[in-house]
Amino acid sequence: MSSDSTPLHSSAVINEAVQSLRDGGLVAFPTETVYGLGADAKNPEAIKKIFTAKGRPSNHPLIVHLAAPDKFDQAQIDWVALLAPWVRDLSEEALKLINAFWPGPLTLVFKKDKSVLNELTGGQDTVAIRAPSHPIAQELLRKFKSGVVAPSANRFGKVSPTSAADVRHEFEGMLDLMVLDGGDCEVGIESTIIDLSSGDKAVLLRPGAITPSEIFAKTGVKVYLLGEAKANEAMDDFPRVSGSLKAHYAPTTPLRLYASGRVLDALSEFPDIKSRVAVAVWDSESSLSEDGHPSAHFEEVEVPSDSAAFANRLYRTLRDLDQQGWDLILFPEPPAGEEWDGVRDRLQRACFGSGPSSNSHDSN
Ligand code: TXA
Ligand code: MG
Prior knowledge:
By secondary structure, the chain is α/β, with parallel strands linked by helices. The chain has helices spanning 11-22, 44-54, 79-83, 92-101, 118-121, 135-144, 164-171, 212-219, 226-232, 263-267, 307-323, 341-353, and strands spanning 27-29, 36-40, 63-65, 106-111, 126-130, 148-149, 178-179, 192-195, 202-206, 223-225, 255-258, 276-282, 297-303, 328-332. It binds threonylcarbamoyladenylate (TXA) and magnesium ion.
């Protein structure tokens, strides 16, 4: 299989990708959130290849990606029939979320149908499913006519890819991978994950572009935070979420957050060895003028002060800075507010896992 760049929206290339999936191969493809590393969700050998390629522990479950049929009227889609092979018990609440947000950056966790492979659920009795909206993902899934498991197409714990070039860079020299090129991802961080498997409460497992207030506004469904849900009842068997590891999405260069106006405080952890520091600053603010520090040379990089634009640029900026050989990267702490929860979550984990030995944090 060629690892060359493939042209946007070429049906022939997508057909080739479908064949590759049918043959048990891996195909990287664009979604509106980040690029995914896809395999046939019904093929245990293909699923194993994903875990090997990513270096991901086999008990970390994958998301099944399904096609939304190409209907003029989205409300006409029969999700009950489409989900029947994967999901046991589809609640009214679930259908409300699906009708409001699919296709789109929302993953839902259900009790699984017994036919769903343990290899993809990490042995749990639940399955995570989403219908991505990116046109190439949609075309691939429609032509494949079944589910495709796809984690983000990065090595375990590392920054997720938001372009085809990022994916190639991630697996360079390790894997001869077919990469469908759909340009830069629009959302830029992974989908919001809501657990519906308790049949009782909808619980937020991973924040993303779609927020609990937006869900409530569009569907009337209240989404609980994991802490709230746990406080109310014993949820010891709560599902494992690899994104919930403290270290994740991490660059190799040390990364830290600074509180507004307190760039120098963030340096205190790095007394003398740091010299070249990249500082992300809000595009809405004037320059930091940090020329007063004796041993550090600062260079500023602007980041958007709008949360969606920030998410769209986050992984791109982290990857670019990581390749530029800085000694330290500083990002401003995101402001309070639910619309920032997704990027705050990713930035905090990225800080924790960052640094040259970032793999050693993976067991956390
Ligand atoms: O936006 C996304 O969701 C991207 C694109 C490619 O679709 N995919 C993605 O996959 O982020 P991955 O594997 O990097 O993250 C999937 C997350 C993990 O944190 C995993 O633990 C969680 O989904 N997950 C999968 N199945 C689950 C389940 N049954 N219960 C709870 N969490 C689950
Ligand atoms: Mg991931």
